[in-house]
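Lecture 7, part 2: worked example. A protein chain together with adenosine-5'-diphosphate.
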Amino acid sequence: MTDQQGLFEFADLPEWEQAAAEDVLVAEVVFNLPLEKPYTYSIPDEFRELLKTGMRVKAPLGRGNRRVIGYCVKVRRAESAVRRLKPVEEVLDNEPLLDEVMLRLTHWISERYLCGWGQVLESVIPAGVRRKSGTRLVQSFVLSETADELVAAAKLPARQQAVVDVLRMATEAVAAIRLCELADCGPGPINSLRKKGIISAIRVRSEVSGELMGVSDPTEDLILNDQQQQTLNAIIAALQSGEHSTMLLHGATGSGKTEVYIRAIREVVSYGRQAIVLVPEISLTPQTIRRFRSRFKSLAVLHSHMTDAERHWQWQQIARGAVEVIVGARSAVFAPAPNLGLIVIDEEHEPTFKQDSTPRYHAREVARYRCSQEKVPLLLGSATPTLESWLRATRRQDTLLSMPDRVANLPLPPVVIVDTRNDPQISKGASIGRALRTSIDRALHDRGQVILFLNLRGYSPTVWCRSCGTGVKCPDCDITLTWHRDRQEAVCHSCDHSIPAPEKCPTCESAAVRYFGTGTQKLEEEVASAFPKATVLRMDSDSMRKPGSHDIALEKFRHGEVDILLGTQMIAKGLDFPNVTLVGVIDADSMLNQPDMRAAERTFQLVAQVAGRTGRSARGGRVLVQTTSPDDPSITYASKHDYLGFAAYELHQRKDTGAPPFMAVTRVIFRGLSEPQVCDTAHAIADKLRATAKQMDPEARILGAAPAPITRLRGYYRFHLQITAPSHEQVKLLWQRVENKLTLPDGVEMAVDVDPINSR
Ligand code: ADP
Ligand code: ZN
Ligand code: ZN
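Predicted complex, written out as C-alpha cells:
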C-alpha cells in the first residue's frame, strides 16, 4: 500500500474516527505484580500534557477497579480507533522518575529473571525517591500577568519597586526568603504587592539540601608497578574504544587492584563521565571507601543507613551529573548516572551481589547489560573469580587481565593444612588445636597481630538432647537453634526467633540438653582464657549491630589496640593490615559440608581470601587451616594459592555433573502453611514441566519437586524444583509455557530464582 492510498483510505473514514486514531493517547502501565505485560489505559485530556513515560499513575485494576499505583512505561498513540479503555485516574509525579535507559534496563531484568516489570521498578527506585522525601512546598512569587499595567498606573514605594525589579530579572519563581534577601526587604512590601495583584504566590517544590562528600585526607597517586601499568593500559584502551567489553581482572590478594580501579576511574572522570563502583557490603569495606574518598572530588557512598531524604537528595545529585564516583552495594548498579563511563565490581565472587528476594537479579549481569547498552566497559575484579566469570574469560567472551604478583614483590603467605582428626586439644573439645595454639603464641610473642576465622556466630551451633538424640529446633523453621550465651537465649539464625535456655528437651522432657560445636562467642572465651595477656576483638553480626561499628573495630585493630581479631565472613573481605603475621582458619570443613553445589567453590574462596589477609609487609605472615578433610581439593588448591588449578578441577566436575556455568538453572520455590497442599502443588507443576519438556525440549531436565533443604521457614512449608537446560532461553521458554496456564491454589506462594546461588 502506498502512502497516497493510505491517506486516501484514511480520509474516507468518518470524521470522529479520524480524530480517534490521530489524537487519542494511551498509557501502558505496569504494577508491582508478577505480570509480564503492561496494561493499557486511556489518558484523559487533563493529563495529556502532563503524563510522560517514567511517571507513576493511579489507575483502576482488576474486577473491583481498585485504584492502584503503577508505573507508566510508555505513552503512545492509540493503534486503531480506541477500544473502551479504563482511564488513568491520577498522575503522581511532575517529572519522570525513570529515563529510557532505566526503563530498558528494568524491562530486561524482568525478562532475564522471570518476574514482573513493575516488581523490578518498585525494588529499584528507592522509597525516598518515590516519596520525594526531604522536599517541601515553598511559597514563591512570580509577577502576575497584569503586573506591567498595574505598575505603570501606580507609583510604587522604593521597596516594592525593588521586589518587582527582582522578579523581572528572575527566570523562575523566587522563594519568599530569597526574595526578601534579593530585594533587601521584609515581608511587608511583598504582601502589599500581592494585595495589589502585581505579584502572585505559587508553591514550588524545593529540596532539603545535603552535602556531597568531598576529598578527605587527600593522598597522592602511587607509582604503579609494571603489572599494574599494563593492566591500566588495557583498561584505558577499552575505555577509549567507545565499545562495550567486560574485563575480568584476576589479581592476587594484595596485588594492588584497588589502585588500578582508582586510576581507571580517574581516566573516566577526565572524559567528564561518571563511574559506579560496586562493593560487596558498604559497612564491611571502610578501608576501600576511605581510599576512594582520599582521591576523588565528589563521591557518593550509597549505604543502607541513609535516611530517605538523604537518599533522595543523593539520587538527584547523581542524576544531575554532580557526582564523579558512586560507590555502593548491589543496588548502586541502578544509580542514575547520566553519562556513565565505567562500572567496576570489586570482589565479584561475593554472593551478596545476588539479590535474595524478587527481583532476584545478579548485579554483575545487570551491570553487563547496562554497560553494553551504554557502550562502556565493565571491570570485574577478584583474586578468586566465580567459575561463571572465569569460564567466560577463558572462552574469550570476556577479556582476562592478570596480576599474579603482590605489590613490592611480597610473596603470598605459606599455608599449612592442619589435620585435626587426631589433635589432642580438639578431641577434648577445644577449637584451637595444638599447632595453631603454638603459632598464636609465637606471633604474639613477636608482636604480630592474629586473625582467626570461623563462619559460625553465636556460642554453640547445636542445642542437642543426649537422651533422645534430637536437636532443639526453632518452632517455625526446620533449623536447630544456636545457643547465644551472652543473651542466655537459643536463637534461630533464619528467623531470629529466640527462646530462653531450654531446661528440658521439648521432645522427651529429659534434662540432658547439651550445647555442641563452636561459634564465635565460644571461640572468644577460649581465646581469652588461652591467651590471657592478649586483647581480643570479636566481629560478627551480633557484636557489630550499630552503624559504623565495623569501622571503629577495624581502626582499633589497625592502631594495634587489638592483638587477636576473630570473626565470621566479615573479616575475610578486603582487609589490608601489614602487621597481621598469622591467620588461622578454625574449621574449614563447616563450609565444605554444606548441601550446596557451590560448597567447594565457597570453601576455596574463603580459605584463599582469608589467607590473603596476611603477609602484606616485609614482616611476612603464615596461615594455618584446621580441617578434618586435609586432602579435599578445595583446601589443597587454596593452600597453594592455586586458583587456576582449582578452577580447572572444579570446572571439570561441574561439566561432568551438568551444573552451572555449563548449564542454566532456575529454581522454583513453593511455600504455604499446609504441607500437603504445598507438596501437591509443587509435584503437579514439576510433572507438568516434565511433560512439556518431553514435547518441546529434550535437553531440559526437571529435578524434583522435593522438600527444600530448609523444609520449614518462618512457619511456611517449603518445596522446590529445578529446571536445567543448556541455555537460559531454553529454561525460560519451557517455564513460560507452563507458567502461562498456571493458577496457584490460594495459600501457596511461588518464587522463581533464575541462576540461584543458594539452595536453602
Ligand atoms: P588488592 O585489592 O589487590 O588486594 P590493594 O589494592 O589493597 O590490593 O593493595 C594492597 C596494598 O598495596 C595497599 O596497601 C596499597 O596501598 C598498596 N599498593 C598498591 N599499589 C601500590 C604501588 N604501585 N606501590 C606501592 N604500594 C601499592
Ligand atoms: Zn530429648
Ligand atoms: Zn526460625
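The CA atoms of residues 227 and 468 lie 61 Å apart. The two ends are 59 Å apart (CA to CA). Keep this in mind for problem set question 3.
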